[in-house]
């Protein structure tokens, strides 16, 4: 149950690099700070229509339908290089190169895709994307209705004389500043956030902002553009790359792994650069993790800055493992997050050195037999399922499997499948409160023995649960039933999370978590990321 929040990631980079404006570059804005009022003796202000016409004339005309440019992006923790290739129709490809790793994302018009540092590729149906124009010249590509835009004043911005223009958008106003000399956009204010373009350079007569500062309450970014090339072709490398595959033993397409099962978890032995280690297999982790002290002792190359969210936020680095061997399957190399591994106290003594999450599951089919403590990892290219189990579609767009299920008779919800949780079921407070009728009253029902835990009335008050990095408030309950596919589990021990923020929070994007306690009730569980499904057999 880990979630990584990278300091400079492509999704946040998309927001800051592509602040959407109007009609193809939609500016998400609120009213900024009001500029100095115009003196009554000042000359008349130009109309919004005049400003817009002079602005478009000064900007220049893009000469082709395709362009490529590169530069740097710096936040409070690290510097990265980027390269963007974009077409006027919204297709694009962007790469981000950090200290040790490289990531990419793009769209070919039919499919949006993202490739992480380990070569894992996620795809989804294409959405609308900003054109090459908006990506390259940024707010200079904005379109607005001159009949509703209001020229407020001739004022000063960072030493430049500028016209401040208020522009309504979906009932909200933004303040955009046009340079009174060059007629280019010098910046914008939107609520507590600001954009400033301090330097321009012309490429084939097109004015491109090449030094950009973007400030928000959450972060501050500095972006440069170093090179721009206008391409004459209309096609480029916009298709998604191939998924990277692990290396199986020669002639094999699957491996069987006997695992340890402390408290119902899955803990496997592995080797990092031939050094023996133990990993927790965790489908609820969006990234793979190694204890930072162990990474240092093993001399693993480390660089950059990473953040991993558990019960608390962990700060660390990215580490490179040249070879991770898991019972003969090899990942070469594997990039992991090196953070202090503060596991809950009851499993901290198990000698767990790290966590394998999305990076392990994404290219493989995993068959888990809790009854026999056996994990089978299967080459997805040769896997077909012909059994009688229940096949449940899974969404892996958030790097964890999320399935549709229901509680009680028909109260549906979205639940992540988490082999790193020892609980049977975890529900977030809002969903649990909305479906209170689905819980059993321990005073009126004979709640029996389940997984060596006997419930009595005293168990159903507020308590504390443990996650990586700390504790968080919960209360225990017993759910009438949990319906997974064609199967129904009765009298399910349930933990209801009472906190509002963090990875285990009532404001989560899902309604709850199906953990190892429930999965262990099935004869076999298939977690099939490549085909986006969960299969359970009784």
Rg for CA atoms:
27 Å
What is the beta-strand fraction?
Answer: 35-45%
Strand order of the largest sheet: 7-6-5-4-3-2-14-13-12-11-10-9-8
Instruction: Give the N-terminus to C-terminus distance in angstroms.
Output: 25 Å
Q: Strand count, sense and closure of the main sheet?
A: 13 strands, antiparallel
Shape summary: elongated
Number of strands: 36
Number of helices: 8
What this model shows, in words?
With 538 residues, the chain is mainly beta. The protein is built from eight helices and 36 strands. The strands form three sheets. A 13-stranded antiparallel beta sheet has the order 7-6-5-4-3-2-14-13-12-11-10-9-8. The chain has a ten-stranded mixed beta sheet with strand order 1-19-20-23-18-24-17-16-21-22. A hairpin with a 4-residue loop joins strand 25 and strand 26 (374-379). The chain starts with a strand and ends with a strand.
Using brief descriptors, characterize the structure shown.
538 residues; 13-stranded antiparallel β-sheet
Secondary-structure map with pairings?
Blueprint: E1 3-4, H1 10-17, H2 48-59, E2 66-74, E3 79-87, E4 92-97, E5 102-107, E6 111-115, E7 121-125, H3 132-137, E8 150-157, E9 160-169, E10 172-179, E11 185-190, E12 193-203, E13 206-215, E14 220-231, E15 254-258, E16 267-272, E17 275-281, E18 289-291, H4 292-297, E19 302-309, E20 313-321, E21 324-326, E22 329-331, E23 334-339, H5 345-348, E24 354-356, H6 358-361, E25 364-369, E26 374-379, E27 390-395, E28 402-407, E29 411-418, E30 425-428, H7 429-434, E31 462-467, E32 470-484, E33 487-497, E34 512-515, H8 516-519, E35 524-528, E36 533-537
Parallel strand pairs: 17-24, 18-23, 29-34, 30-33
Antiparallel strand pairs: 1-19, 2-3, 2-14, 3-4, 4-5, 5-6, 6-7, 8-9, 9-10, 10-11, 11-12, 12-13, 13-14, 15-26, 16-17, 16-21, 18-24, 19-20, 20-23, 21-22, 25-26, 25-35, 27-28, 27-36, 28-29, 28-32, 30-34, 31-32, 32-33, 35-36
């Amino acid at each position: 149950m880990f979630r990584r929040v990278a300091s400079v990631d492509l999704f946040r980079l998309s927001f800051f690099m592509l602040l959407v404006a109007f009609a193809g570059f939609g500016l998400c804005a609120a009213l900024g700070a009001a500029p100095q009022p115009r003196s009554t003796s000042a000359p008349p202000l130009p109309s919004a229509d005049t400003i817009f016409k002079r602005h478009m004339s000064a900007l220049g005309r893009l000469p082709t339908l395709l362009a490529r440019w590169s530069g740097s992006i710096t936040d409070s923790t690290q510097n990265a290089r980027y390269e963007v290739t974009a077409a006027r129709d919204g297709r694009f490809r962007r790469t981000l190169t950090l200290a040790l790793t490289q990531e990419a994302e793009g769209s070919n018009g039919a499919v949006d895709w993202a490739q992480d540092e380990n070569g894992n590729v996620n795809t989804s149906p294409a959405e609308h994307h900003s054109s090459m124009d908006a990506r390259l010249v940024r707010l200079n590509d904005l379109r607005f209705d001159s009949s509703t835009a209001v020229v407020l004043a001739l004022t000063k911005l960072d030493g430049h004389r500028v016209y401040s223009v208020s522009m309504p958008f979906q009932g909200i106003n933004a303040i955009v500043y046009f340079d009174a000399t060059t007629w280019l956009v010098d910046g914008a204010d939107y609520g507590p956030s600001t954009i400033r373009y301090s330097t321009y350079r012309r490429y084939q007569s097109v004015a491109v902002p090449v030094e950009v500062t973007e400030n928000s309450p959450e972060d501050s970014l500095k972006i440069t553009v170093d090179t721009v090339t206008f391409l004459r072709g209309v096609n480029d490398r916009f298709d998604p790359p191939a998924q990277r595959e692990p290396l199986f033993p020669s002639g094999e397409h699957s491996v069987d792994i006997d695992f340890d099962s402390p408290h119902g978890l899955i803990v496997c032995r592995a080797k990092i650069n031939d050094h023996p280690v133990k990993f927790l297999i965790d489908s609820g982790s969006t990234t793979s993790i190694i204890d930072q002290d162990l990474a240092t002792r093993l001399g693993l190359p480390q660089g950059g800055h990473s953040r991993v969210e558990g019960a608390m936020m962990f700060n660390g680095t990215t580490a490179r493992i040249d070879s991770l061997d898991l019972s003969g399957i090899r990942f070469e190399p594997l990039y992991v997050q090196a953070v202090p591994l503060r596991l809950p106290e009851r499993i901290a003594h198990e000698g767990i050195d790290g966590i394998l999450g999305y990076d392990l599951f994404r290219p493989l089919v995993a068959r888990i037999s809790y009854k026999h403590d056996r994990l089978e990892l299967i080459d997805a290219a040769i896997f077909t399922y012909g059994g009688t189990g229940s096949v449940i579609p899974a969404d892996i767009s958030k790097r964890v499997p999320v399935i549709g299920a229901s509680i009680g008779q028909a109260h549906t919800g979205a639940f992540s499948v988490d082999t790193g949780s020892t609980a049977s079921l975890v529900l977030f407070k809002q969903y649990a409160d909305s479906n209170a009728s689905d819980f059993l009253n321990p005073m009126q029902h004979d709640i029996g023995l389940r997984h060596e835990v006997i419930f009595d009335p005293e168990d159903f008050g507020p308590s504390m649960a443990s996650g990586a990095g700390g504790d968080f408030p919960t209360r225990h309950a017993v759910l009438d039933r949990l319906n997974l596919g064609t199967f129904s589990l009765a009298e399910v021990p349930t933990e209801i999370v009472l906190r509002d923020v963090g990875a285990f929070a009532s404001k989560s994007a899902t309604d709850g978590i199906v953990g190892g306690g429930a999965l262990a009730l099935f004869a076999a569980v298939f977690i099939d990321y490549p085909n986006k499904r969960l299969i359970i057999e009784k």
